[in-house]
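During the second half of the funding period, the structural biology subgroup turned its attention to how the target accommodates small molecules. The most pressing case was iron/sulfur cluster, which had performed well in the primary screen but for which no bound structure existed. We therefore specified the complex as follows and requested a full 3D prediction, including the ligand pose.
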Amino acid sequence: MKKVQIGNVVIGGGENIAVQSMTNVKTKDVEKCVDQIKSLEDVGCDIIRVAIPDMESAKAISKIKSKISIPLVADIHFDYRLALECIENGVDKIRLNPGNIGSEDRIKEVAKKADLYNIPIRIGVNGGSLEKDILQKHGGPTSEAMIESAKRHIDILNKFDFDNIVVSLKASDVINTIKVYTLVKEKLDYPLHLGVTEAGTYLSGTVKSSIAIGTLLKNKIGDTIRVSLTDDPVNEVIVAREILKSLNLLKNAPVMVSCPTCARCNINLIELAKKVESYLAGVKKNIKVAVMGCAVNGPGEAREADIGVAGGNGYGLIFKKGEIFKKVKENELFDELKKEIEKM
Ligand code: SF4
């Protein structure tokens, strides 16, 4: 399969699965945009996309680029001049559908400029906005209809000798997402950007994305992923990374296990587990951390963990590889655990 270079990240052809997200502040507000991107970088975002609704946003690209260290993608609809401006301003990838930007001359101009600057274009087909004739032909936004739309956009770019392409085919439900990507994998040789569009709020979006993206990745389909949530984009990255961790597709990232608690638990374990989870989001170490409710079963149940805590009555035990290492007051558990993880 083809590989595509997006700034300093390569996707496709068996490279690591890259995690993407999208900012939700105004792109033209450079300071806010950079702040948000940095907080996404901190939790492990590999590629960031910004919407370009106007020329001011396109002109902000070079300033944003100079202050961040992950590749920057410009999301453009309809106006080819915004695409040209973003490319000239150093963006690392463009997301646009060539069939939506008008005359062939305009598309040719964008393709030539993207080629000159060696930046890829993602064709992003969305089940909710397919061309009328394709919808009529297929009787609705079926997988076949979405793939035909993608091919149409690809053909337009290929006509101008442009083939540095990534493809996404997003449906808003799990079954169709799995179906369309499974089908397209057999038909196209471009890196695939996976995602469920309009997946919903934190809970439903996480469940839908995990099932769809997880199933596809397990079947070796997909090269970069974006979890779409009606929520803080930081959570999109955290969820995406959890999906990769669950499938052993993420290196240098801690895995956390925690018990569901029961009548044997005498500490506020739920709060502690949330705190540890949020701390671990920024840690780049290949370790397993356990957060367990009781000392009776805790260390034993989490024997394979590198480090962990087990609650007692008003205190907790820090354990390493299933062996008790230190007894600590409940209110000091988090800090002690953090201190030990930092030493690892
Ligand atoms: Fe209950 Fe202890 Fe098991 Fe947690 S580790 S579920 S508190 S027995």
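Two results from this model are relevant to the next phase. The mean pLDDT is 94. The pocket of iron/sulfur cluster is lined by residues 259-262, 264-265, 292-294, 297-298, 301 (CB under 6 Å).
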